Input
Amino acid sequence: MGLLRGAVLFVLSAFAAIVGLLRGVRSFRAAQAQAAQPRREPKAWLLEKAKTAAATLVLVGLFGFLVIASGVVPNEASSGHWAITEWLLTFATRRTVVFHSLGIEPPRHLGDPALVLRGAGHYDTGCTPCHGSPAIPQPRIAGAMTPDPPYLPPIVPDWSDAQLFTIVKHGIKFAGMPAWPALERDDEVWAMVAFLRKLPALDRAAYRALVDGPAAGSGEPVALGDLLGKQELPAAVAQSCARCHGREGEGASAFPRLAGQRAVYLAASLAAYAEGTRHSGIMQPVAAGLSEEQIAALARYYAEAAPRPATPAAKHAAAAARGAVIASEGIPAQRIPPCADCHGPLPEGGVAFERNQHYPILAGQHPDYLVLQLDLFARGKRGGTAYGHLMNHVAGDLTPEQMHDVAAYYGSLAGGLTR
Output
């Protein structure tokens, strides 16, 4: 208390000295004005006023510096904000979000269940520790922050889709809210917005079913697959991957199928995520927390998992047929090489050869995921391993319809084809 009292007395003394100095300056200038000629040029009068204003600003700035230097202004999170400070920060935050979200148009498929699913898994791991969830309404550690991160279900309706996008993508200064780790991936940010739109209507059970799926053997629909199951999994799979990709690598439309994929490709992709050369705000933090041994174990585990059998695309048979032609023959007029040269499968009667193990197997992959990757390549937003750049010009020359055709073809094949 003695130290605080001394600091307060120091600030008050400094303030009194500055006020006395200002009064002396004003008295001196008043005396000068009386001694001067009764008429002054307008320019001289304006110059005098400007000098007085500048001197006042300097003195006010000096006073502010003395207040800060004294240490009397509290900076502890435990002290909270003054009401005026909290109001000012909240007002400024809302106004800047509103301004910077102008002109942002949400995608038409914002309500797509696959998009909601992508956002759900990341929210539970990346956002719940601070903002809580229907399962954990008030995280204790985050509740001691200043400002404390708000519980989102009641306040999400107060923001538009574009404003939520701006907040999630760019974060908020002085609030502990980080920007999205991969600013190139607007699709991931929109996935978070899609999930946030569903969040206010979720109770604890609905939330857990969406982000985790129910316990194995319950007979209920599973959002992200029967994640942990009864069999034993490598620790890294259970902790880092099964939530989205499934215990056997089956994935879902929102997440890629990993079962039967080349181990070299999987390991190189995880390393690229960890290094930031493959862009994903969801995968980069996960991969960065894995050791080289864990990456090798994950790659080996999923490479040895049994790929799924062929599922002919009945609804998209015509698209798959067109995609088969592109995959086997390419599109010479657009300078598109055959996809099968790098990704398989080998045409009937073709001579088998060893492909680069860094090239992924596409057979059996979810079509929606393939279309997304081709679109990211075309826009130069995907990144990847040392060979990823080879796809940029190829995907950039494909039309959206051709992307869907190729994806439909590969999605109809049995997984794991390496011929």
User: Anything to note?
Assistant: The chain has a mean pLDDT of 85.
